[in-house]
Specification:
The complex is a heterodimer of chains A (335) and B (446). Chain A has 335 residues and is α+β, with helices and mostly antiparallel strands. Chain A contains 9 helices and 16 strands. In chain A, strands 2-1-5-3-4 form a 5-stranded mixed sheet, sandwiched between helices. A 4-stranded antiparallel sheet of chain A has the order 13-12-11-14. Chain A has a 3-stranded antiparallel sheet with strand order 6-7-10. The chains are: A alpha+beta (335), B alpha/beta (446). Chain A: Its cofactor is [4Fe-4S] cluster; [2Fe-2S] cluster.
C-alpha cells in the first residue's frame, strides 16, 4: 500500500495504482479530467495531457518535486507522494492551454454533432477552458469516411486519443484499424478504407470521447438530451457479450443502444453489434428502469434533476416561459 | 591543433575495410576488454572518462550504463541510435560511412560491458548507402571472429544487426526508436518505465548515440582517466561538431571540448570566419532545437567571459542568455539572414515531424508554423508575437517526449533575442518581405 496526498487529502491505495485512479478513489471535483485514458483499455493514456498534475514531492524516500508536470493517468503512485491538481495554479493554467490546443483544429460543430450533450471535449472545454480563441488560422479538415455500413468516421472532429485503436486491437481478433500519417495530419484509418467487419466493432463508437465515430443508425435522429436512457438486458447469443445495455428512448421508439458507462464515461462491459444495431424493439429487451447519468451532462439535467438556471437569464425569458417557471420553480445557483 | 581520437585515421585509404582498420590499431579495445577486463571494469572506465551522451542531452554515458537493470535470466539489449536527423547535425553519417568498423568495434566492446548478446544499430532510412557500408563491415567482423559465437575464445557471444528506420525524425527519440525497432508505429512511450528497466521487447535496454559508442574503444584503449584529461571540467574528451551555414569552411570538426567559440568560428584551423567577409549575426550551437543566440551572447557569456565549446559554458545563463551544446550541429548565420524566415523554417520541420500522439505538440507545432508563415509573408499582426511566445510556452514541458521542447525552444529564443525583427515584419511587411530584405536595425522601429 502507498499513502499519497492529493490536493491535501490523504488516501491509501495499492502499489502500482496510477495517480488518476488514486484521485478517483477520493472522487468529486478534484479528479483530473481524462480525454484519452480509458481503464478497460490496456496501454491507453498519456496522450491528451488533460490530466497533467504537479508532483510536489516524489515519494517519502525522495521528496524532491518532479521537474515537469506528469500525466496522472500513466504515472504510478509512490509512498509519500504529494500531488497538486486543483490546488496548483500552474496545473490549471496548463490545462487551459490543453483545452485551447485540443480545440484549435476541432470544428466546433456541436450544433449539428450527434455527440453534443455527452461529449467529453465539450465538458472538458466548459469546465477548464477559456471562452475565447486566439486561433486565426485555417482548421484542418478531412472527408467523412464510412467504415462499414454502421459506423461513420468524421476525422475532422477527432482528437487522436487512440481509444478506438486500442479497442479494435484488444476486442477484435484481427487488427482492423490504426493511425495513419503524422502530426496534425495524422488520422484514424483503415488500410485502404477496409470495412471494419467484426462483431464488437460498434464499441469504438462508445469509447470515442468526441463525435468522430458515430452510429450510422442514430445519426441526426435526435439530440441526446431529448432521449430517455433506460437500463435493459437480454440473453445474448454471443458468449463474449454481456447483454447489458442502455436503451435511448424517444417516445416509444428505441433510437439507439449503447453499452453502460460509469461516472467517468468508461464502458463497464462491452456489447456486441447485434445488441447495438439490430435489437431496437422494446420486445427484445427486459427493462430494468431509468439509467442514472452522472457527471455534468445536459442529459441528466433534463430528466432526473431540476434544471439549473442562472438568475440573469431568467429576466430575459419570454412571458410564456416565465409562467412555466412559476409552476415548476427551478433550482437556483448559489442557494 | 587538437587531438583527434575518433577521426585520426578517417582519411586513410581503405579504412572502411577490416584489414586496413585492423592495421591502424582497430579492434584493440575488443581484445583488451574481452581478454583482460570484466564487464564491470569496462563500465567503470567509461564512468571515469566522464563521457557524456553525444546525441544531444549530454547525459553521462557511464551513469546511464550503471542504471541498466540486470535481472537474472532476462536478455539485455544495446541499441545504437543512428537516426541522426536533427537539422544542422551530420556527424554520425560521416563517422559511419568513413569509419564503419569504429562503430562496430564500439558496439562489441559496449555490448560486452552491458552483457548484451544481441545489439542493434537503428539507422535513419535515408542513409541506405551507409547501411550497406555498415553491413559489409559487420560481415567482415563476423568473418574474422569478432562477432558471433565465442568471440576471440572468450565465451562471449554477440549478434549485431543494422535496422533502417523509415526516415522519421521522431524515431531518434529513444522510446520511439524502440517502438519502431519492434515493428510498431514510431510513437514515443510514456516514461516511466524507462528503457533501462523496460526497453526493447520490454527488456532492459541502453540506447546510445553513434558518437558515444565510437568513443568507447578509445576510452578502453587509453583508459578512462586519460580520456578525462582532455576537455574542461565535466565536459571531457573530443566532440564532433558539424559546422554549417555562412562559414568559410563548413564541415565536420573533431574538437577538444573547451575550444573558445570565437576561435572555432574565426580561426583558420576550424571554420575560417564568416563567408564573403560579412559579419556574424546569430548562431544555433547544437542543432536546430537549441535556442538561437545573437553574436554578442555566443562569443561571450552575459558575464563577459569568453564562451567555450563545452556543455557548461554554452548553457551558462540558462535559456535567458545561454543555449546548449546539444548534438553539435553548429549553424552560423551572417548579417543578411532573416531570423523570422529561419525560425519559420525550423518550425515547419517540427510541424512535419511531430508524431501527433500528444495534443500540445500535435496542435501546437502546426499553430507555430502557421503564425510564422504569416509573419514571414507579411500578414502578421501586433498580437502574433505574443501568441507565438505563449503557444511555445504551452508546448514546452507538457509533452510526452522532448520533441515538443525542441519545437518550442527555437521560437521562444528567437523572440527573446530578435523581437525587433519580428516587429519589423509586423509593422513594415512590404519592406520586410522584399526578396533579399535585411533588417536595418532597431532604429527603423522608432
Amino acid at each position: 500500500m502507498a499513502k499519497i496526498t492529493f490536493d491535501g487529502i490523504e488516501v491509501d491505495v495499492p502499489d502500482g495504482t496510477t495517480i488518476l485512479n488514486a484521485a478517483r478513489t477520493i472522487g468529486g471535483g478534484i479528479v483530473p479530467p481524462a480525454m484519452c485514458y480509458y481503464t478497460p483499455l490496456k496501454g491507453s493514456g498519456g496522450k491528451c495531457r488533460a490530466c497533467l498534475v504537479r508532483v510536489a514531492a516524489g515519494s517519502a524516500k525522495d521528496p524532491r518535486p518532479m521537474p515537469k508536470l506528469v500525466a496522472s493517468c500513466v504515472t504510478p503512485v509512490q509512498d509519500g507522494m504529494v500531488v497538486e491538481n486543483t490546488t496548483s495554479e500552474q496545473v490549471l493554467n496548463v490545462r487551459k492551454g490543453i483545452v485551447e490546443m485540443l480545440l484549435i483544429n476541432h470544428p466546433l460543430d456541436c450544433p449539428v454533432c450527434d455527440q453534443a450533450g455527452e461529449c467529453d471535449l465539450q465538458n472538458f472545454a466548459f469546465e477548464h477552458g477559456v471562452s475565447t480563441t486566439r486561433y486565426e488560422e485555417e482548421r484542418r479538415t478531412f472527408e467523412k469516411i464510412d467504415i462499414g455500413p454502421l459506423i461513420q468516421l468524421h476525422m475532422t472532429r477527432c482528437i487522436l486519443c487512440y481509444r478506438c485503436v486500442y479497442t479494435a486491437d484488444q476486442l477484435t481478433e484481427k487488427r482492423v484499424h490504426g493511425v495513419l500519417g503524422r502530426g496534425d495530419a495524422a488520422e484514424i484509418g483503415t488500410y485502404i478504407e477496409n470495412i471494419i467487419d467484426n462483431e464488437f466493432s460498434g464499441n469504438v463508437i462508445d469509447v470515442c470521447p468526441v463525435g468522430a465515430l458515430t452510429d450510422k443508425t442514430f445519426r441526426f435522429k435526435q439530440r441526446v438530451w431529448f432521449t430517455k436512457p433506460v437500463n435493459a438486458h437480454r440473453q445474448c447469443e454471443n458468449p463474449k457479450c454481456c447483454g447489458k445495455v442502455v436503451l435511448w428512448y424517444k417516445g416509444k421508439d428505441v433510437l439507439r443502444v449503447t453499452a453502460r458507462k460509469d461516472q467517468y464515461g468508461e464502458v463497464k462491459e462491452w456489447i456486441c453489434n447485434t445488441c447495438r444495431f439490430d435489437k431496437k424493439e422494446t420486445a427484445d429487451w427486459t427493462l430494468e428502469g431509468p439509467a442514472h447519468i452522472d457527471r455534468s451532462s445536459v442529459i441528466s439535467a433534463n430528466h432526473y434533476e431540476l434544471p439549473v438556471l442562472n438568475a440573469q437569464v431568467i429576466a430575459d425569458l419570454p412571458e410564456s416561459s416565465l409562467r412555466d417557471l412559476e409552476q415548476n420553480p427551478p433550482m437556483r445557483l448559489g442557494n | 591543433m587538437g587531438r583527434k581520437l575518433l577521426t585520426e585515421h578517417i582519411n586513410v585509404e581503405g579504412i572502411d575495410t577490416f584489414e586496413v582498420y585492423r592495421k591502424h590499431g582497430g579492434y584493440r579495445s575488443v581484445e583488451k576488454a574481452l581478454k583482460t577486463m570484466t564487464p564491470d571494469e569496462v563500465v567503470e572506465e567509461v564512468k571515469k572518462s566522464g563521457l557524456r551522451g553525444r546525441g544531444g542531452a549530454g547525459f553521462p554515458t557511464g551513469m546511464k550504463w550503471s542504471f541498466l537493470a540486470k535481472p537474472e535470466g532476462v536478455p539485455r539489449y544495446l541499441v545504437c541510435n543512428a537516426d541522426e536527423s536533427e537539422p544542422g547535425t551530420f556527424k554520425d553519417r560521416q563517422l559511419m560511412s568513413k569509419l564503419p568498423h569504429l562503430l562496430v568495434e564500439g558496439m562489441i566492446t559496449s555490448s560486452y560491458a552491458l552483457g548484451a548478446n544481441t545489439s542493434y544499430i537503428y539507422i535513419r532510412g535515408e542513409l541506405l548507402y551507409v547501411l550497406r557500408i555498415l553491413e559489409k563491415a559487420i560481415a567482415e567482423a563476423y568473418a574474422n571472429g569478432f562477432l558471433g559465437k565465442n568471440i576471440l575464445g572468450s565465451g562471449y557471444d554477440l549478434d549485431l544487426y543494422v535496422h533502417p528506420g523509415g526516415g522519421a525524425y521522431i524515431c531518434g527519440e529513444e522510446t520511439a526508436l524502440l517502438e519502431s525497432l519492434e515493428g510498431k508505429r514510431g510513437n514515443p512511450r510514456n516514461k516511466p518505465p524507462f528503457p533501462a528497466v523496460q526497453g526493447l521487447y520490454a527488456r532492459p535496454t541502453v540506447v546510445n548515440n553513434v558518437e558515444s559508442i565510437a568513443a568507447v574503444p578509445v576510452i578502453v584503449n587509453d583508459g578512462g582517466d586519460e580520456y578525462a584529461k582532455i576537455g574542461v571540467g565535466r565536459s571531457t574528451g573530443t566532440k564532433l561538431i558539424s559546422a554549417c551555414g555562412h562559414l568559410n569552411k563548413p564541415g565536420i570538426y573533431e574538437i577538444e571540448l573547451g575550444v573558445p567559440v570565437e576561435e572555432f568560428i574565426y580561426s583558420d584551423e576550424y571554420c575560417g570566419g564568416i563567408w564573403k567577409g560579412r559579419d556574424l549575426k546569430a548562431v544555433v550551437a547544437g542543432g536546430s532545437s537549441v535556442p538561437i543566440l545573437p553574436k554578442e551572447l555566443i562569443l561571450k557569456t552575459a558575464a563577459g567571459e569568453p564562451r567555450l565549446m563545452t556543455y557548461e559554458s554554452l548553457s551558462d545563463g540558462g535559456f535567458v542568455t545561454g543555449t546548449m551544446l546539444g548534438s553539435g550541429g553548429f549553424i552560423a548565420m551572417d548579417e543578411t539572414t532573416c531570423i523570422v524566415r529561419n525560425t519559420w523554417n525550423f518550425s515547419r520541420f517540427y510541424h512535419h515531424e511531430s508524431c501527433g500522439q500528444c495534443s500540445p505538440c500535435r496542435e501546437g507545432t502546426g499553430w507555430l508554423e502557421k503564425i510564422l508563415h504569416r509573419l514571414e509573408h507579411g500578414h502578421g499582426n501586433e498580437r502574433d508575437i505574443d501568441v507565438l511566445a505563449s503557444v511555445a510556452k504551452q508546448i514546452e514541458g507538457n509533452t510526452i517526449c522532448p520533441l515538443g521542447e525542441a519545437a518550442a525552444w527555437p521560437v521562444s529564443a528567437a523572440i527573446r533575442h530578435f523581437r525587433d525583427e519580428f516587429e519589423w515584419h509586423v509593422r513594415y511587411p512590404q519592406e520586410a518581405t522584399r526578396p533579399g530584405a535585411v533588417f536595418p536595425g532597431k532604429a527603423v522601429l522608432a
